[in-house]
């Protein structure tokens, strides 16, 4: 495929809708629509484990696009240069917890058929005996409604399925990471 033309169909405060024209190898012209953010296309998702209890941290957050609450992980846009600092800031803001980075994934495309966003998955550890983590206080923005939920590893699948049964949406990350293909 070779890109021939690109035009912005709509541009708002946070996203734009683009139509791109391509020429295929056999000479056909095709059009494709995609969405991109206007400020950054980099994001981070933080998968956190509390120690010593070995509970995992999930969030339940309202998302207007689906008009529902969804179970996922703390996440956010990366607008600065230091991914670790941005990840720990998002963790602190959304959950109140102070963590320590244990690992970082390579750059991943979350939905390349539609979005230009890239994601880095960060593994974090939270020392729940640290004085700062004894009474975590979220630092939410006005438009955020986030509930922090801690779940033991062995209970994650049942928790996710129970939440879905109640009508809560399930993010792709929790199922991929904790339930995988062997759990259908």
TrEMBL record:
GO terms for molecular function: ADP-ribose diphosphatase activity. Its cofactor is Mg(2+). Coiled coil: none annotated. Its EC number is 3.6.1.13. GO terms for cellular component: cytosol. Residues 37-178 form the Nudix hydrolase domain. It holds the Pfam family NUDIX. Keywords: Hydrolase. It is an enzyme of class 3 (hydrolase). GO terms for biological process: nucleoside phosphate metabolic process; ribose phosphate metabolic process. The keyword Nucleotidyltransferase does not apply. SUPFAM superfamilies: Nudix. This is ADP-ribose pyrophosphatase. It comes from Clostridium magnum DSM 2767. The gene is nudF_2.
């Amino acid at each position: 495929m070779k890109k021939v033309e690109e035009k912005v169909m709509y541009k708002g405060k946070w996203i734009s809708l683009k139509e791109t024209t391509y020429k295929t190898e056999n000479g056909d012209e095709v059009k494709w629509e995609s969405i991109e953010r206007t400020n950054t296309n980099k994001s981070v998702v933080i998968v956190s484990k509390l120690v010593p209890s070995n509970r995992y941290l999930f969030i339940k957050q309202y998302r207007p696009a689906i008009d529902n609450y969804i179970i996922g992980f703390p996440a956010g846009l990366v607008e600065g240069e230091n991914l670790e600092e941005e990840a720990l800031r998002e963790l602190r803001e959304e959950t109140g917890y102070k963590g320590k980075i244990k690992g970082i994934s390579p750059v991943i495309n979350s939905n390349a058929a539609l979005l230009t966003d890239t994601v880095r998955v960060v593994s974090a550890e939270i020392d729940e005996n640290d004085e700062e983590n004894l009474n975590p206080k979220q630092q939410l923005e006005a438009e955020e409604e986030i509930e922090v939920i801690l779940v033991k590893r062995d209970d994650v699948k049942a928790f996710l399925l129970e939440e879905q049964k109640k009508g809560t949406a399930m993010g792709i990350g929790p199922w991929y990471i904790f339930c995988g293909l062997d759990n259908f």
